[in-house]
Amino acid sequence: MTTFDRRDLGLLLLRLGTGGVLAAHGAQKLFGWFGGHGLEGTGQFMESVGYRPGRTSAMAAGLAETGGGVLLALGLATPAAGASAAGAMAGAAAVHAPNGFFAQSGGYEYAASLGLTAAGLAVTGPGRLSLDAVLGHSVNRGWMVPVAFATAAAGTAVVIGARMRQLRRQREGEQEALFEGE
Asked: Of 80, 84, 115, 120, which is least surrounded by CB within 10 A?
């Protein structure tokens, strides 16, 4: 008989809370649920902040958040779920970074918190109250953690790098006024 301790309960609560928030956040992008704008509106926003093509970026972010969130909540494929959610949140943090840290000023606090919690769960594992445990950890092996993070980091670096190049190109095309009032 399997016994559970308070760490398992704590991990379950972290997974359910973080996974639920991530899944809802992604569902806003994908389906327009919970007051979201769906793929069209989110795609336009993504385009406006330098993620191109916007609709594809919205789809990728929505899938990483929704899929990663649902899998985290279930405690299934925890390394991949946490790493993909953390990557999506790194992309969100990049958008909000110019506004500083705190969310009240439009900063990256919220995205960083979700991303770090998802990453922490990926590293720690889901605990015994999870589908990974029920399935004998077949998709939650130790070697999967560095592979998942390396894959997510590489993809995230490519996407954020492309965004930064796009923003630089836009800025280079804009001429600042030489004198006030121009």
From this structure: 120
